[in-house]
């Protein structure tokens, strides 16, 4: 049995708390490693090291910091296969999907190569007589990130790449379910030239998270995970005076207008609903066809596609559309919610409850499910299922469909499929959701835009990656300067415009 480590001060360090968590291979159900769960003392140690290393890194000019990012991109590409395999083994997603996970993080590293440009401040020459005014963006010090299981490469990189490019030290507390790739990412950063102590990985659970939230030496916290924990971390982190951004769960609606290309809409829904076994915060989990005739055509197009989806382990290569879910508890929760949908009267058009995979009976596989005639009062509509389950809610009109997306408490992503530019434009303008797709089912913004939901899908004001991340990981200092003899005329006592 492998024993995992922390990565502190540039070394793999054994856990010291005596507490461990099991790391599973979701395809076989076997425990493949023991993960140490850090105590507050181990967090203290990482913060101490980060605080000692950070000033030197902040004083390294931004172009040199960017060169580390450049080399990091090369190393990520070099090790792509290794990273993807480790990721799939702990998460369960297919190898091409795991490579996409690394790739979408890598693109944020590429964006961060622009740090020298992105960190340039503002300057006003002659803001008053003999007065210049300028602002600069300075790093915060030590930042921490708490990340979910479903993107073990991408989401840590979304956080630590901009944080480090801005001159901060970063402590990552990854998910207990998929810790290998975060450890590999930290090692690779040092191979790229990052000084020891600037990127550290401390594994743990609530105890480590609480130690991070309360630590005086940590200036900012980024969190991605479920909404109840996002809300907890946002509240507690802010109460401890930290800068905090938290991204939570989702229930993403896709509206299908009567004029949509039904084959394209169905293909899009299958990929967006069942890819990664539905374990994506940008998965479409609710299909909203407008009009009964559209709904009937949609269900007819979806049913054969969903029934022919191939579920299996990542080791089966291209033969698999999606893998197992992450834990036995996740599987149980998904099947419980499916049962609640049946009990509440929703029509189970594709029933995956009896799915079994020969040779993998202990794996956490869940078959694909499709519900029709779901209504907003049902638990399967209100809750995030985070599994291969798509719910169809029939809407009588466009306004009714829009209202559904607007009234749901989650607001991460949404999409509309239509050939009508007017409907698409109206939807994009009015819907109260952070990321909108027009004939695009998973509208994840690219690295140079920013990622973030609305409503209970996000807490805090700045988004992830893009220019927002450079704002989140720096603070502005504004200098008003008068040279060379501004004070020789005596002091000024009134607060007045610079005329
Ligand atoms: P999770 O909330 O269970 O865990 C996320 C992190 O929080 C982990 O590092 C975990 O160790 C920690 N944590 C868990 N319970 C805690 C507690 N009681 N106190 C302190 N820390 C705790 O989420 P998950 O199951 O790993 O990930 C799935 C969730 O993440 C889904 O809800 C999904 O929608 C969401 N997600 C959101 C986004 C986004 O950008 N909005 C992206 C990916 C995933």
UniProtKB/TrEMBL annotation:
PROSITE patterns: ALDEHYDE_DEHYDR_CYS (PS00070)
Enzyme superclass (EC): oxidoreductase
Domain Aldehyde dehydrogenase, first and last residues per copy: 15-479
CDD domains to which the protein is assigned, alphabetical: ALDH_F6_MMSDH
The species this protein was found in: Limimaricola variabilis
Stored InterPro entries: Ald_DH/histidinol_DH, Ald_DH_C, Ald_DH_CS_CYS, Ald_DH_N, Aldehyde_DH_dom, MeMal-semiAld_DH
GO molecular function terms listed in the Swiss-Prot or TrEMBL record: malonate-semialdehyde dehydrogenase (acetylating) activity; methylmalonate-semialdehyde dehydrogenase (acylating, NAD) activity
Protein name: methylmalonate-semialdehyde dehydrogenase (CoA acylating)
Domain of life: Bacteria
Key words of the record: NAD, Oxidoreductase
EC identifiers of the protein: 1.2.1.27
């Amino acid at each position: 049995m492998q024993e995992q480590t922390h990565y502190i001060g540039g070394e793999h360090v054994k856990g010291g708390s005596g507490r461990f968590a099991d790391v599973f291979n979701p395809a076989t159900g076997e425990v493949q490693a023991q993960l140490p769960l850090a105590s507050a003392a181990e967090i203290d140690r990482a913060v101490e090291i980060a605080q000692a290393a950070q000033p030197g890194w902040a004083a390294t000019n931004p172009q040199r910091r960017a060169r580390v990012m450049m080399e990091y991109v090369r190393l990520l590409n070099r090790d792509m296969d290794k990273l993807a395999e480790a990721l799939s083994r702990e998460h369960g997603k297919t190898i091409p999907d795991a490579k996409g996970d690394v790739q979408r993080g890598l693109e944020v590293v590429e964006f961060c190569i622009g740090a020298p440009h992105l960190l340039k401040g503002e300057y006003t020459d002659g803001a008053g007589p003999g007065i210049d005014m300028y602002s600069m963006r300075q790093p915060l010090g030590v930042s921490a990130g708490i990340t979910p299981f479903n993107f073990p490469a991408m989401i840590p990189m979304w956080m630590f790449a901009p944080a480090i490019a801005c001159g901060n030290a970063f402590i990552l507390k990854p998910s207990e379910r998929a810790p290998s790739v975060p450890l590999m990412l930290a090692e690779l950063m040092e191979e790229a030239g990052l000084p020891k102590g600037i990127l550290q990985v401390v594994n743990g659970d609530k105890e480590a998270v609480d130690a991070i939230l309360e630590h005086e030496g940590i200036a900012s916290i980024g969190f991605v995970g479920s909404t109840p924990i996002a809300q907890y971390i946002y509240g507690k982190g802010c109460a401890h005076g930290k800068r905090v951004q938290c991204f939570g769960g989702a229930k993403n609606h896709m509206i299908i207008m009567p004029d949509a290309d039904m084959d394209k809409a169905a293909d899009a829904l299958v990929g967006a609903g069942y890819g990664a076994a539905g374990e994506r915060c940008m998965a479409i989990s609710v299909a909203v066809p407008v009009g009964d005739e559209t709904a009937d055509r949609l269900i007819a197009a979806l049913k054969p596609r969903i029934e022919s989806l191939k579920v299996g382990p990542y080791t089966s290569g291209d033969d698999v559309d999606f893998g197992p879910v992450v834990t036995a508890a996740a599987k149980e929760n998904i099947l419980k919610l499916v049962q609640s949908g049946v009990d509440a009267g929703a029509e189970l058009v594709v029933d995956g409850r009896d799915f079994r995979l020969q040779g993998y009976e202990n794996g956490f596989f869940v078959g694909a499910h499709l519900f029709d005639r779901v209504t907003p009062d049902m638990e399967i509509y209100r809750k995030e299922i985070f599994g291969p389950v798509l719910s169809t809610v029939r809407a009588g009109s466009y306004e009714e469909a829009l209202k559904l997306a607007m009234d749901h408490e989650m607001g991460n992503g949404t999409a509309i499929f239509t050939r009508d530019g007017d409907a698409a434009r109206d939807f994009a303008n009015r819907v109260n959701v952070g990321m909108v797709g027009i004939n695009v089912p998973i509208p994840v913004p690219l690295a140079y835009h920013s990622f973030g939901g609305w409503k209970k899908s996000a807490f805090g004001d700045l988004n992830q990656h893009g220019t927002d991340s450079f704002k989140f990981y720096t603070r502005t200092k504004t200098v008003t300067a008068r040279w060379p003899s501004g004070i020789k005329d005596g002091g000024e006592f009134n607060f007045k415009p610079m005329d």
